[in-house]
Write a structure and sequence with these properties.
Length: about 180
């Protein structure tokens, strides 16, 4: 009986290790996850700001407390909570938001999880970060993905940094290039 347990463990361990190694998304899947999250977050943020402003959608820049939950493009929900300050065009907005995805179905797949999304704007441009983790279910597979992205926009251009799903966003995924 003891020999049988050792044999079983000896046979199962390599399979477990192989499964653990294959959990990470490919570069292509990582780009799809980024696209789905960016689309869903931008849409939810715009709707959250519009809802918080109410009928005065063209109101001047103001600080808003956001607590919004709405449908994603093809089903599921994206919830946005946090603070937002800007004129509504988002090209100079400052915000500190938590986006929670629950079965959020976009064209490139379905998202579950949370991303903390921040932006600080000043006269020279803005910086933004996205941090958190998402589970993604796409037509060609499933994956879990950690976000630790940064973005800097200035007169000199747009620079992405950090990692997405374990890949360097600039060097390996070529996001922003």
């Amino acid at each position: 009986m003891l020999g049988m347990k050792r044999l079983s463990m000896t046979m199962i361990l390599p399979l477990c290790l192989l499964a653990a190694c294959s959990d990470g998304p490919t570069k292509e899947e990582s780009a799809k996850i980024f696209a789905a999250a960016s689309t869903a977050m931008s849409s939810a943020q715009s709707r959250a700001v519009a809802e918080a402003r109410g009928s005065s959608a063209l109101a001047p820049a103001t600080e808003l407390d956001l607590d919004f939950s709405g449908p994603c493009t093809l089903g599921g929900t994206a919830r946005v909570t946090g603070s937002y300050e800007g004129d509504g065009t988002d090209d100079r907005a400052s915000f500190d938001l938590l986006t929670t995805f629950t079965g959020c179905h976009e064209l490139t797949g379905t998202l579950d999880g949370d991303l903390h999304w921040t932006s600080v704007a000043d006269a020279n441009g803005f910086t933004a970060t996205m941090k958190g983790g998402l589970d993604w279910h796409g037509s060609d597979g499933d994956a879990s993905c950690d976000f630790d992205l940064s973005l800097q926009v200035s007169e000199a251009g747009i620079v992405y940094g950090g990692s997405l799903c374990g890949y360097d966003v600039a060097a390996e995924l070529h996001i922003g290039s």
